Amino acid sequence: MKQKQHIEVVFQKHSDQAKKDYRTHLTATIECIRFLLRQGLAFRGDDESHNSNNQGNFLELLDFLAQHNTEIDRVFKNARGNLKLVAPKIQKDIVRAAASETTKVIIDDLGDDLFSVLVDEARDISVKEQMVVCLRYVNKEGIVMERFLGLVHVSSTNALSLKVALESLLAKHSLSLARIRGQGYDGASNMQGEFNGLKSLILKENACDFYVYCFAHQLQLALVVVTKKQVEIALLFNLLASLCNIVGASCKRKDMLRESQMQKTIVALQNGDVSSGCGLNQETTLKMAEVLKVIEEDGNNPEQRAEACQLLNHIQSFEFVFNLHLMKSILGVTKKLSQALQRSDQDIINAMTLVKVSKQRLQSIRDDGWSSLLNEVSLFCDSHNILVPNMNDIFVTQGRSRRKIQKVSNLHHFQVELFYQVVDRQLQELNNRFTEVNTELLLCIACLNPSDSFFAFDKEKLLRLAEFYPHEFSSTQLLALDSQLENFILDMRLDDQFSNINGISGLSQKLVETKKHVVYPLEFLLLKLALILPVATTSVERTFSAMNIIKSRLRNRMGDEWLNDWLSQRRRASPSSDLSSCRYCTRLTQPHSAPCCAALPSSSPMIDERERGRGEREEREGSCSRGLEGRHHRLHRDLSPSLEPAAFIAISRHLCLCQILDHRRLGCVEEEGATGCRCALSPLPLSFNRRHAKSLLPLLREKRELEEREIGCARGAAVNRGLFRHCYCVAVRVNLGCYWSCWCRSWS
């Protein structure tokens, strides 16, 4: 073979400038991909040819970046035709590597600590059941985190199938059910069933995995029950839905509504009746009576005019206005609770406190809110020319016989039958739904509340809380906790840094900040166990919202793995926004990273023969493992990142062959499988062509024969034939390279 065709000569043709150019090219590509992932935009276009007016978001964004950066423009123009990094397969490989890096950061942040799982399932646009899993844990800074872990397609939604899918996802990331200390689901029977639900199946294996019914779902159900059981309130929401449909169905009516409201708003601003500002006087606050009057007079058909007339009569009645203001007051109370429950860092103690506050506010509205509500409704009716009935007159019920009903006054009807009944029903539903507040576990956790200088502290309840977790607190540790609790509370009360803390989340952060979590490890462990208990599954619901944006009607053929990788970057709760492109680029250029889509060697393409000789001498002297590890380290240290995964794989395979020969010579045949597996995660170069592949054939054949004869590996022949075929296919397909993890798995 000619010297110029030798594989080692290829290494010597690359320079430092080539390294810099390739890294610039790769970084620009990653930045464009990250932008599209964040915005949920499609990558490809209908026509990506050079003559197309719109080549798609990815190519157009790359072109825009090159036009505004001379260095990137120069690198793109000088890049070889097989190294443009624009192929869809390369885009998916980079996204997969980015998703792996993001998940790795989450797992590293979790470490060996305990955690809770938030699970829910929903259908995507292609009618496939998708299960989303989020983790809730306390990081090393004492902050509560909720992170998206993964999305799994499940063929069945029964509890057993969901449990198997959950276990497989956790095992994929080296997590287990034994480390779970909390589970949060909605109220579906397959989730919280007492006998065969997912909650029960997990509790059978781990009794410390306590279940908390999602507080946000309970609040929603409490509000829905009121609208269904109270006839007047159900009628109110039906009228509102019909009103939105009849007005919003026509563009002409919408324009008419906007024009009418704009004129009234201008006059009101000039007179000083209303103020201008962000979020004020928006379309959601428009009045629709004017539009209904126009429809009643100039409707296209009698049905429309009749419906508009009926709606106009209803919305201009005192009863409609009263019910509207009543629900506005109730929903105003629960809105604050709903928004607080949707925070990912919300702790269970604060959530319990917020539920109690909402109940107290509703009780105060019932006791003292009637007069203010009636005055507010009367002023509204006077300003809009709506007749206000006399409260002492007999209430007239429409559509019923007056002989068969009990005669009551208007005051009794609106105050007792509406106001008191609606508020009482709402309070009753909140008491019935939020039963967790009265459980022994949460009552014990409430003793950790640092408000008012740890006013709620109860030593006996905290010891009882520790007994709920026998895996974390042995009998010896319970005795130690008993003696340390008094010192802990006294220290907290005397330290001014802990005087203004209101929640256990702030207490956890302050303990880490002052390094007192090291002094009181058992108390800090109790605090973490209380913090990781889930409050709501809003993180999972936000993931479903992002899934509907990404996998839309126009992209309904998106695969599950591609969707999962996209969601890991799309979700704002993920740490991907904190990772720089250099972090992704570094992962893509690490030879041992798995999976690695664009893995490149990391230093000079030259191989120091003196270093290789030194390693061989160390092996001959008896330092076999040290020589092998040193050889791998020097190989990956000396190979250059500018070298697209080219002859690097050839050198790595050659080195693997040398190691097998050395093992055979030194009598270390039993370690050959591990040696081959260790060097199997190396990528192929784009410049690797048929000529280079042929130069590897003798090495591959010899290695295959050694495997079949000495190691007895029946898969050796198929593996090495696959290596050569993949070697040539990568050169032909102009791919960045791929991971050899599949070969590594088949070897082991």
Enumerate how many helices there are, as a single number.
34
Largest sheet: 5 strands, mixed
Binned strand content:
5-15%
Mean pLDDT level: 75
Cα-based radius of gyration, to the nearest Å? 34 Å
CATH level 1 name of the domain at 102-214 and 537-576: Alpha Beta
CATH topology of the domain at 102-214 and 537-576: Nucleotidyltransferase, domain 5
Number of strands: 5
- Which architecture of the domain at 102-214 and 537-576 per CATH? 2-Layer Sandwich
For the largest sheet, list the strands in their spatial order: 3-2-1-4-5
Q: End-to-end span in angstroms?
A: 35 Å
Report the uncertain regions.
Answer: 282-286, 591-690, 710-748
- Which structural class fits the helix and strand makeup? mainly alpha
| Helix content, binned percent | 55-70%
Shape: globular
